[in-house]
Amino acid sequence: MKRSEFRFLDPLRVRWAEVDMQKVVFNGHYLMYVDTAMGNWWRALALPYEATLAALGGDLFVRKSTLEYLAPAGYDDALDVGIRFESAGTSSLRFVAAVFRGEELLVHGEIVYVWTDAATRRPQPVPAVLVDAFRAHAAGEPMVTVTIGTWSELGVEAQAIRTTVFVDEQKVPVEIERDTADAGAVHALARNRLGLAVGTGRLLAADSPCHPARIGRMAVSRGLRGGNIGRALLEALMAAAARRGDAEVMLHAQVSAIGFYRRAGFAPFGERFEEAGIGHQEMRRKP
Fold first, then answer.
1. Which terminus has fewer CB within 10 Å in the chain: N or C?
2. DSSP letter at 277?
3. What is the number of domains present in the chain?
């Protein structure tokens, strides 16, 4: 078994508390490593775990977990935990897991889940749409689709995400988050393989030579950040700006997101400032 066989690899570094009296990782911790990686695997598929189960009316229970230990890991080792969807039965889902230190395979095993009815907890057929999403990820296909449209077309789903992220999570006053600019803006909405909305953003037209087109209200569901949904939204809006003929696009990046926008090609412009009680930096890029 090689690390190249895993599309998904979750990095971690061994902590002091995970090492036993033999100065190696205690065997039970590897199950925690695999379980943590499984949670991040769902994020990579743009499938928020609880919302996905609720939307499909089911639940998952572990039927079997097995691990085989080949070599030990020690304190401060940098490891990668691979997760791979292997197969689906009528009500079962089988995954292969492996722990690597560099190219060296330390531990490998399998996890078998049973899909059940959420209320009765009795086994039920695994929804085909879920299995299709698992197989699409294994094949390297995109996990989200981004739709460009108007507020009348996308506003209900986009507003729900924005309210959760900006108003509920970041405590931005609702009267600041909502404005009249939505009606004339170009909007982007990311949906996952189940059709659930997971991210949004908008593009405003330039209003003067000093104020170019502006991207804003970029929001991704909390549990899915770091899964490239924001980048997909950003590039879709930049493509819309290019089609419209915008010469330059600006945005007000929250300080915590400056690195994300730098990696997308945006450069800082001017000094940092505060907006809605949060530090921001204006950044610009040509479409």
1. N
2. T
3. 2
Domain boundary (97, 119, 138) is at 138
Q: What is the pLDDT of residue 204?
A: 96
How much is the pLDDT for 276? 80
Which structural domain range is residue 46 located in?
3-138
Residue 108 has a CB neighbour count (10 Å cut-off) of 19
Residue with tokens 């899915």: 224
Backbone dihedral region for residue 233 (phi beyond 0: left; psi -120 to 50: alpha; all else: beta) = alpha
What is residue 158's predicted lDDT score, i.e. its pLDDT? 97
What pTM value is reported for the model?
0.87
With b for 16 or more beta-carbon neighbours within 10 A and e for fewer, the 206-225 pattern comes to beeeeebbbbbbbbbbebbb
DSSP state of 165: I
Contact present, 107 and 72 (Cβ < 8 Å): no
Q: State the CATH number of the domain containing residue 16.
A: 3.10.129.10
